[in-house]
Design goal:
Elements: E1 5-9, H1 20-35, H2 38-48, H3 53-71, E2 74-79, H4 82-89, H5 94-101, E3 107-111
Parallel strand pairs: 1-2, 2-3
Helix pairs in contact: 1-2, 1-3, 2-3
C-alpha cells in the first residue's frame, strides 16, 4: 500500500450500517483501530453520540479527510459484500454513499459483491466504478 494509500478494512458484515453516515462512522472506527490514532478514536467517540444523520456524515467525513490530508494519503476502503450494504441495508441512501465514495481525491474503493443473477453488474449507481468479474473457482483451485 505504501505511501499513497491508507487502507481501511471494514468487517465482513457491518450489520449496523443503515445510512451513509453510519458507513463513514464504521470507516472512522476501523481507521482509528487500525492506526491506533488517539485523535481519531476521540473523533469516533464524539461522532458515535450524534443522532442527526447529516451531522454524523459531515463529522465523519471531516475526520476522515483530516486524517488523509495530515498524512498526505488517500483512503482505500476495503469492504466485502458491498451489494448487501447498498441494496439491503442502506438502500435509500445508497446513491449518496456511492457519490461520496466516488470522491477520488479522498477515496479508493475495493469491494466484493456476489450475485446469482449478475444484476449488480449492470447497476447504474456503480457506473463510475471499474468492475472485475470473477468466474467461480473449481474444487482444485479452492
Amino acid at each position: 500500500m505504501g505511501e499513497a494509500w491508507q487502507p481501511i478494512f471494514l468487517g465482513e458484515e457491518s450489520y449496523t450500517v443503515t445510512t451513509p453516515g453510519e458507513f463513514f462512522l464504521e470507516c472512522l472506527f476501523h481507521l482509528a483501530d487500525q492506526t491506533s490514532d488517539a485523535a481519531l478514536k476521540t473523533q469516533y467517540d464524539d461522532a458515535a453520540t450524534m443522532s442527526d444523520k447529516n451531522s454524523l456524515k459531515r463529522e465523519c467525513l471531516t475526520a476522515l479527510r483530516g486524517f488523509a490530508t495530515k498524512d498526505g494519503k488517500r483512503l482505500l476502503v476495503i469492504v466485502e459484500n458491498f451489494h448487501i450494504l447498498i441494496n439491503d441495508q442502506i438502500s435509500t441512501g445508497a446513491v449518496e454513499l456511492i457519490a461520496r465514495l466516488s470522491d477520488v481525491t479522498l477515496f479508493g474503493v475495493l469491494a466484493t459483491s456476489v450475485s446469482q443473477t449478475g444484476a449488480e453488474n449492470d447497476d447504474a449507481r456503480l457506473a463510475g466504478f471499474e468492475k472485475l468479474l470473477l468466474r467461480p473457482s473449481s474444487l482444485d483451485e479452492c
